[in-house]
From TrEMBL:
GO molecular function term, any single one: hydrolase activity
Protein name: Cyclase family protein
UniProt-listed InterPro entries: KFase/CYL, KFase_sf
Origin organism lineage: Bacteria, Pseudomonadati, Pseudomonadota, Alphaproteobacteria, Caulobacterales
Keywords for this protein: Hydrolase
Pfam family, one: Cyclase
Length: 211
């Protein structure tokens, strides 16, 4: 068991009160409401949106009658990972999929290197965006999830969000530590969100490299 656990790679940013948020969104508020010294236990209260830190977008986020996170079959959160190395690219284009052997049900993990700027002032500016052709190819291949180390695949009015979520492809944003996958050509992804009846949820994303 110890060897198996050591092999796991955590792709999730730690959640705290200083998490950067998408411009215009509310900042998370984390308040301690009980303390061991006075109450004999610790407890914290959280207030914030569902699209902070490493999180998953459900169809309801952009589709009027789309599924909330709680309605998505749990099997969708497990799958074979496919790393797409987009470092140095100004956009996430369909050319990056050449030779990737993408198949139905895969979880596509895109490495841009942007995760290294997560707490920097320019994190939400000038990051690579997903092209329509890239999104169309993922839809055609019937992948399960597109997971990014950037804050969003697109910008307002969010055409890529609507394309992917409208065709059943879930989106994970704000991955961490994705560069750790470069030396692992084969891996599985587990991305389990809280079972919220809303349009998104925090998610713990873990990669398990193949032996």
């Amino acid at each position: 068991m110890e060897m198996t656990m050591k092999a796991l790679i955590d792709l999730t940013h730690s959640f705290d009160h200083s998490m950067p948020v998408y411009p215009g969104d509310d900042c998370p508020e984390i308040t301690q409401i009980a303390r061991i010294a006075e109450d004999e236990y610790n407890e914290f209260c959280f207030r914030g949106g569902m699209h902070v830190g490493t999180h998953i977008d459900a169809p309801l986020h952009m589709v009027a009658d789309g599924q909330p996170v709680s309605a998505i079959p749990v099997s969708r959160f497990f799958g074979r990972g496919r790393l797409i190395d987009a470092r140095g690219s100004s956009e996430i284009s369909v050319d990056l999929l050449k030779g990737a052997r993408v198949e139905r049900g895969d979880i596509i993990v895109v490495l841009t290197g942007w995760h290294e700027r997560f707490r920097k002032a320019d994190y939400f500016a000038d990051h690579p965006l997903v092209t329509p052709a890239f999104a169309e190819e993922l839809i055609r291949k019937e992948v399960s999830i597109l997971a990014l180390d950037t804050p969003t695949p697109d910008r307002h009015p969010f055409p890529i969000h609507k394309m992917l979520l409208g065709n059943g492809v879930l989106i994970i944003e704000n991955l961490a530590n994705v560069s750790s996958l470069v030396d692992h050509p084969s891996f599985e992804i587990v991305a389990l969100p809280a079972k919220y009846q809303w349009d998104g949820a925090p998610v713990r994303v873990v990669a398990k490299p193949s032996p």
